[in-house]
Amino acid sequence: MMLHLDAEVVNGGFHQLFWNSEGAYNEAILEGLRFFGFTNFQDIFLRAVACAEEHKVVETKRRGENTWEEFTAGYKTIPWNPIDEAYYQTSPTLFQCVAKYLREHPDEFRRET
Questions:
Q1: Which three-class secondary structure state does DSSP give residue 103?
Q2: DSSP designation for 67
Q3: How far apart are the first and last CA of the chain?
Q4: Does the predicted TM-score (pTM) go above 0.70?
Q5: What whole-number distance in Å separates Cα of residue 70 and Cα of residue 34?
Q6: What is the pLDDT along the chain (113 residues), one digit of tens a residue?
Q7: What angle do CA 64, 11, 77 make, to 5 degrees?
Q8: Helices (H), 22-93
C-alpha cells in the first residue's frame, strides 16, 4: 500500500489517489504508515483524508459519470496544493523510507522456501 500511495500522489496528487481508489485503501494505508512508524507521512495522509471527506471526492465521483472534466474540476475547487506540497517536500521520500526500512529489517520480509 505504501508504494501505491506514493505512486498515485507523485503522479497526480492526493486528489488522484482518492478519486482513483475511492478511499478503499485508506485504512490499509494508515495501518502501513503506523506499522512503519512514518508519522510525518501519517499526519499528511490524515490531512488529505479529511480534505477528501470535507469536499466529498468519492461521492462526487460516484454521482457523476467519471469524466475527465469531473476529475480535473477537483484540482480547481479543492485546496489540495498545501497538502500535496507537504508530501512532495518531505525528505526522505516515502519510497526512500520504505526502502530503508526493508534493508534494515530483511528478516521481517523473508519468505520461507
A1: helix
A2: -
A3: 24
A4: yes
A5: 33
A6: 888 999 999 999 999 999 999 999 999 999 999 999 999 999 999 999 999 999 999 999 999 999 999 999 999 999 999 999 999 999 999 999 999 999 998 888 777 66
A7: 45
A8: 26-36, 39-54, 57-63, 68-77, 81-89
